[in-house]
Amino acid sequence: MDKSKRLFLKSKRSFCRRLPPIQSGDRIDYRNMSLISRFISEQGKILSRRVNRLTLKQQRLITIAIKQARILSSLPFLNNEKQFERSESTTRTTALRTRNK
What we know:
Order of helices and strands: HHHHH
Distance between the termini: 75 Å
Radius of gyration: 23 Å
Largest sheet: none
Oligomer: single chain
CATH class of the domain at 33-72: Few Secondary Structures
């Protein structure tokens, strides 16, 4: 077989299927914080379907549950702890610099 023809052949990789992130027994509910927290980023954003590997129906239910938990203040809307620490430390250093001049 020619090398030029080999380039177009698909590789024979075995695809390893991951277990779905939501088991059949898990209830998607705003009170199930251990389940909901897996689908939120460190900043408090809802992760996309592609990242979560969820079906469309599961993603919709997760989104609704997260929004309900936020409204009932079980979850924060934003997680600004790291950003607050950074801004606080930068203001301290600029304050020290201006004081030393």
